[in-house]
Amino acid sequence: MCFPGLRPADRLPTALLVINFPSMNAALASEISRLTPAEKLQLVGELWDDLAASENRLPIPAWHEKLLAEDQARYDANPTEGSPWSEVKARILGKS
Question: Fewest CB within 10 A of the end CB: N or C in the chain?
Answer without folding.
Answer: N
